[in-house]
Design goal:
Helix content: under 10%
Structural class: mainly beta
Low-confidence stretches: 1-50
Mean pLDDT: 82
Distance between the termini: 100 Å
Strand content: over 45%
Length: 629
């Protein structure tokens, strides 16, 4: 209950519940570099001033070319604690000073079309909210002519100022009044260094922003005082968690309980007329809720008893005297199951190590999982078989839903086939013993072989996933092929090429052309066995020059340079398709995919270039054919 002593002896009781919401059709308007900050109140009467209001709000603002950006704005103002109508019913006018922080990405978007100066106006849509209706307090702000910093990166500030109109209050507005920031609309004009308007769409535009949901947009609240005492009681308002309650899985016959707290957030008493459970009888409730005084709470205890196997469900129904939310429904669920037991699952059921050279080894892993509801105990793990050893064993007690692993190593000592097995003993009632079989073949180490030098011509293309562009590729690779083992090494050389892509998504006329060079790192290594070619190469991708085409007329340098390249070498792994065998004499086709690391040292717009270059999923398709002397 809130009581205010006024001038006369009249007693007047007004009950209300403050429950106003944002306009249901909220205009998605606020601006690119908007965010109302800083306000200095200039009162026309002698209202007592309160302490400064300091409020930070965030907006999502659409920028031409670069899309939505989040703007954070700090609002500062001085307002009265109360307005006494008999003394002076007029509030204002109010001088508004604005400091808006423009993000670095917006600065880059302006620089992209050579804009150097920001001007324009902003309309701040503010509303006084009273018990009898809203009062518009829209204010026109003028942006101070601001130079855009070109020599340094990072955000910068844009000042603005204006005056909000005075507002007159009368006896109908007695009680609580609040002032909210609702919308902001910005009309921008941006100029180039020579004084000309910057090119569309950045030169002149209207930007609408949206207040990010979940924020308290109230700048201040004060009381309008008439000529009698006003006693304000908030109506009863119920507050209770309404999310679904899942009691989880219980063994048949077991019970579990949850407690819900019901709170009255109003001043007047809250009547609880009914608390009941509808649905499966496995759910019951008890409560001490009847009449809940303002600011007080009561408790509802819910109990689930697993009486049958499977999932049961019900609904808790709470009926009260809350005018806005008289009935609340909360879903309930629980699952009954028979006695919980451990259940073992082993994968794979067998291991094939293939062919391994004598003196070398191969290690594979067996995974033991517990798919039951009780802890699984692995009592013993036994290994049998020559040339097989246990490399690791993390199995002991395995919780429900968890797993452990056993590593097996095959190290042949002779050129022959080997077999073995792993026996796993556990407390799984149904499957206490699990066997995993092994197989492998040892081979003699190759001591040499006939080496064939093959020069392959390389032609094809690569598709960059980030921008959808295609880059033509050509070059050659000189390989040294061991005809006995199928292994080869080589020196890869790819010729300089170029690619074109949109700089701004959806604006086909804003395109960039990148000159591309490749700097090989190390040798190309691979194998050619039974018509299957697999090869791996590494190279830095360099961009010595990147230009933009604006309106199909002008090419401007926007990045690149002698040191512009990927931050680390790109790894290309290609292989021939299974249905297209690769021939050492006739050549063939290879395909693969690769990840493009971020670019560095490419100038002011490095981050924008990375948006169109960096990332996984890039594909490569090459045709390799021997060059015969």
């Amino acid at each position: 209950m809130k009581a205010i002593n006024l001038q006369n002896d009249k007693n007047k009781t007004v009950g209300f519940k403050e429950d106003y919401k944002m306009k249901s059709n909220m205009r998605t308007r606020t601006t690119l570099w908007s965010a109302l900050t800083g306000a200095v109140l200039m009162t026309a009467g002698q209202q007592a001033l309160a302490g400064p209001v300091n409020k930070t709000l965030e907006f999502t603002c659409p920028f031409p070319l670069i899309g939505d950006q989040v703007i954070s704005a700090n609002i500062q103002a001085d307002y009265p604690d109360e307005i006494v109508i008999a003394d002076n019913p007029v509030l204002g006018p109010i001088a508004i000073n604005v400091i808006t922080t423009v993000p670095d990405k917006a600065r880059q978007g302006l620089a992209f079309v050579d804009a150097t100066t920001i001007t324009g106006t902003a309309s701040s849509i503010n509303t006084f909210r009273t018990l009898v209706g809203n009062i518009d307090n829209t204010t026109l702000l003028t942006l101070e002519r601001t130079e855009i910093p070109m020599d340094e990166s990072g955000p910068f500030d844009v000042p603005a100022s204006g005056t909000a109109d005075a507002v007159t209050f009368d006896s109908s507005h007695e009680g609580s009044v609040s002032l909210t920031v609702d919308d902001l609309v910005l009309n921008m004009k941006n100029y180039k260094a020579n004084g000309q308007l910057a090119p569309a769409p950045v030169g002149e535009f209207t930007a609408d922003c949206t207040l990010i949901e979940g924020q308290d947009t109230t700048l201040t609240a004060f009381t309008v005082v008439g000529d009698g005492p006003v006693i304000v009681d908030d109506p009863a308002e119920i507050d209770v968690p309404t999310s679904a309650i899942d009691f989880g899985s219980l063994q048949l016959g077991q019970s579990a309980s949850r407690t819900l707290t019901v709170t009255n957030q109003g001043d007047l008493p809250l009547g609880i007329s009914n608390v009941s459970v509808t649905g499966d009888s496995a759910f019951t409730e008890t409560n001490n809720c009847n009449s809940v005084a303002g600011g007080q709470s009561c408790a509802i205890t819910l109990t689930y008893t697993a009486a049958e196997e499977g999932t049961q469900s019900a609904t808790l129904v709470i009926e009260s005297t809350d005018e806005d939310e008289s009935v609340i429904n909360i879903p309930l669920s629980g699952t009954g199951q028979v006695e919980l037991t451990a259940e073992i699952s082993v994968n794979p059921a067998s291991l094939d190590f293939g062919t391994v050279t004598i003196g070398e080894s191969s290690t594979k892993t067996v995974t033991v999982s517990n798919t039951g509801g009780a802890a699984l105990t692995v009592n013993q793990v036994t290994l049998a078989g020559d040339a097989f050893t246990k490399a690791s064993d993390t199995c002991g007690t395995v919780n429900p839903g968890a797993s452990c692993s056993i590593g097996i190593t095959y190290a042949p000592v002779e050129a022959a086939s080997s077999t073995g097995s792993l026996v796993i003993l556990s407390d799984d009632i149904d499957t206490p013993t699990v066997n995993v079989t092994f197989a492998g073949t040892g081979k003699e180490k190759d001591t040499g072989g006939f080496i064939l030098d093959v020069n392959l011509a390389v032609n094809g293309s690569s598709i960059i996933a980030a921008n959808g562009g295609t880059i033509p590729l050509s070059g050659d690779i000189l390989t040294r092929l061991n005809l006995s083992t199928g292994d080869f090494t080589g020196d890869m050389h790819l010729n300089p090429t170029s690619g074109s892509f949109e700089v701004i998504s959806g604006w086909s006329r804003y395109r960039a052309t990148a000159q591309i060079e490749f700097e090989s790192v190390g040798e190309t290594v691979g194998s050619l066995v039974d018509g299957k070619l697999v090869a791996t190469s590494q190279a830095y991708i360099k961009l010595p020059k990147v230009t933009k085409t604006l309106f199909g007329l002008i090419d401007w340098p926007i990045g690149g340079g002698d040191d512009c390249r990927t931050s680390e070498p790109v790894t290309f792994t290609v292989e021939s398709p299974d249905d297209q065998p690769f021939d050492a004499i006739l050549g063939g086709v290879v395909t693969g995919s690769y990840t493009l690391p971020p670019l560095e040292n490419c100038g002011l717009l490095t981050s924008i270039l990375n948006l169109k270059m960096e990332g996984p999923g890039n594909t490569i398709n090459l045709e390799m054919a021997p060059v015969l002397d």
